Amino acid sequence: xxxxxxxxxxxxxxxxxxxxxxxxxxxxxxxxxxxxxxxxxxxxxxxxxxxxxxxxxxxxxxxxxxxxxxxxxxxxxxxxxxxxxxxxxxxxxxxxxxxxxxxxxxxxxxxxxxxxxxxxxxxxxxxxxxxxxxxxxxxxxxxxxxxxxxxxxxxxxxxxxxxxxxxxxxxxxxxxxxxxxxxxxxxxxxxxxxxxxxxxxxxxxxxxxxxxxxxxxxxxxxxxxxxxxxxxxxxxxxxxxxxxxxxxxxxxxxxxxxxxxxxxxxxxxxxxxxxxxxxxxxxxxxxxxxxxxxxxxxxxxxxxxxxxxxxxx
Length: 313
What we know:
The protein is of the alpha/beta class. The chain is 38% helix and 17% strand. An 8-stranded parallel beta barrel has the order 1-2-3-4-5-6-8-9, surrounded by 5 helices.
């Protein structure tokens, strides 16, 4: 049995990662936990559009490279997040529409992927393109209004820009198999695979809370997407209250699906979380391990943890 999350996940050829914020890399408690426990890194905000292309055609990778370099220097792989998204667009992109926006999207994908060519194992090429609710519709955005084929164009552009990277579609509230948003995403991926649009993986953000609770059919969802011929990944995991049993269930769901590449939690300690008030992560503010940590480690080790359970079971 392994004693850290990354090493335990690696036993089955998977990874266990976290989101890293460049501004926290000077915090020794933060970096010691992240360096010890995780073997995959996603930049929390530093590779998003506003950070990497603040002015049109003028790329800035200073913050992104800080995260990337820290990861590589500490023996970790990197997931790229994200290339085409309706949110966190710089002002110049927000003001564009139609063919001008389409060209800007293509240029942005090419610029960012060229900088990291051959260095990023997975890219979230397109993020959050479906609307919430029961319609199964695409989210209304400037990108969507540029033409319904924008997602396909983004993936084709990305494949040409870095053929070695796995290309992922990433979304939230798509874990429950019965939800309309899940079915809409499934239909898109099935269509892409049938038509030869280059998509390699689907990312499930897995922000579970009272409004979007974990459901045991998540494993069915992962299995059904994998059956389409794509890998699946849990990309931004956090669970309100961090119940140990739910964290174990999610981990076992990934372990049960051979094409599940790994799990990324969205932050290190609760104080680093975008939802810190929900205490949704595996480490307390002081850096101590929660019961949920032990439950995850235990699951990754096949039920035999090297640590005594923190909660007596």
